[in-house]
Amino acid sequence: MKTLIGPFAQILPMTGLSLKGALHDEQLTVIEKGGVVVENGEIIAIAGYKSLLQKYPDCEIAFQDTPLVLLPGFIDCHTHICYDGTRNRDYAMRIAGKSYLEIARAGGGIWDSVTKTRIADLVTLTENTVARANRHLKEGVTTIEVKSGYGLNLESELKMLRAIQQAGMHTPATLISTCLAAHMKPRDYTGSEEAYLQWILTELLPVIQQEQLSNRVDIFIEETAFSAKAAADFLQQAMQQGFVATVHADQFSAGGAEVAVNARALSADHLEASTEKEIALLANSDTVAVVLPGASLGLGMLYAPARRLLNAGACVAIASDWNPGSAPMGDLLVQAAVMSAAEKLSTAEVLAALTVRAAPALQLKDAGQLLAGYTADMQAYPTADYRDILYYQGKMKPALVWKKGVLV
Ligand SMILES: [Zn+2]
């Protein structure tokens, strides 16, 4: 049965936009008094409401009697929402002036989350992930990437990926998992970083593949994590095994983005420390430049150079990096809106970074735009003017969210 949803004051289908480079708001398609026809979770047609009424007279009608702006559901292409325990102690130390390294030495940092997540059972991790995914979904995020990386041994990495898989069956949101066993060399691993990465390749990834837990790998390239050289070898071998790649790159020091581009990774994420060299490399590649304003807010650091990346011609996506340490807020729209004022991003650039330009980072072929044949993942804001969405800096939340055509 077809359903006609509308009329909407405005529909922003996010179609017809280039994937790379700067965007002006004038380039946005805005359908005034629009409607959308949905059937079996898929968009059938999108156009003016009256014309759809005439073209589909037998449709069921989902009439909207208040002014709403309709957008594609957001895609959060970088999160760590599968974890247990809080890092509020770290956060208090950080805002009081302690450095990332000082906190790590005091028993905080990633290792603290590893310890707590290793203790948690599968059910707890699954429930935690479902609760966070559902909160995201209510805020218009219909597709969520979720990383492992707080297990860092066979048992716990598999437990995390199984929890993400289970969580995906208990939330309407689409969850896409990534193996981030290369988050850091675990403190209880006595071998070299190369040996640890080799262990991931030979012992962990084959099981992940066998159980179909993920087809994605990630690695944290940083002085405190893995070297560019070791990461390049790791990514090459993982890709030979059939995985696609993403990289935590250039967060505190440059070098990771170059590895990501050379490996033809789907995305290079963070980029706070990227220089003109990395910006040019990303702009001349198909690797999505994923910026994570939530981490900058949490660490009190500069934002990634999103403006310069766009000016150079890169595909820029914005993700939340929702994690217990540096980005505990997890509010994607607030983060994107706050960053847009600092980095001077147009509304078109921000909304594209949350939808159509985030889709290639997750290889999504039917999400991020409102287009016939695409999944009916949609959200509607309680306003008649799309500019209000960033004007209220993320405080205005969607009044309605649809996942696969079903109202959440
Ligand atoms: Zn991250």
What does it look like?
This protein has 408 residues and is of the alpha/beta class. The protein folds into two domains: 3-72 and 368-407, Urease, subunit C, domain 1 (Roll); 75-362, Metal-dependent hydrolases (TIM Barrel), CATH 3.20.20.140. Helices cover 36% and strands 21% of the residues. It contains 15 helices and 16 strands. Helix 6 packs parallel to helix 7. It starts with a strand and ends with a strand. The mean pLDDT is 97. Zinc ion binds next to loops.
Which shape, going by the Cα principal axes?
A: globular
Q: Main sheet, how many strands, which sense, barrel?
A: 8 strands, mixed
The helix count comes to 15
CATH topology of the largest domain: TIM Barrel
What distance lies between the first and last C-alpha atoms, to the nearest angstrom? 19 Å
Radius of gyration: 21 Å
The overall pLDDT, averaged over residues, is 97
List low-confidence stretches: none
Could you name the CATH homologous superfamily of the largest domain?
Answer: Metal-dependent hydrolases
Top-tier CATH class of the largest domain: Alpha Beta
Structural category: alpha/beta
The share of residues in helices is 25-40%
Record field, number of beta strands: 16
Ligands present: zinc ion
Pathway: Amino-acid degradation
Domain Amidohydrolase-related: 69-408
Enzyme class: hydrolase
Organism: Chitinophaga ginsengisegetis
Show the helix and strand layout.
Blueprint: E1 3-11, E2 31-39, E3 42-48, H1 49-55, E4 60-63, E5 69-72, E6 74-76, H2 88-95, H3 100-105, H4 110-119, H5 122-138, E7 141-147, H6 154-169, E8 174-182, H7 193-210, E9 216-220, H8 228-240, E10 244-249, H9 256-262, E11 267-270, H10 276-283, E12 288-291, H11 293-299, H12 306-312, E13 316-318, H13 332-343, H14 347-353, E14 378-381, H15 388-391, E15 400-403, E16 406-407
Parallel strand pairs: 1-4, 1-5, 6-7, 7-8, 8-9, 9-10, 10-11, 11-12, 12-13
Antiparallel strand pairs: 1-2, 2-3, 5-14, 14-15, 15-16
Helix pairs in contact: 5-6, 6-7, 7-8, 8-9, 10-12
The structure holds zinc ion.
The site of zinc ion has 5 residues, from loops.
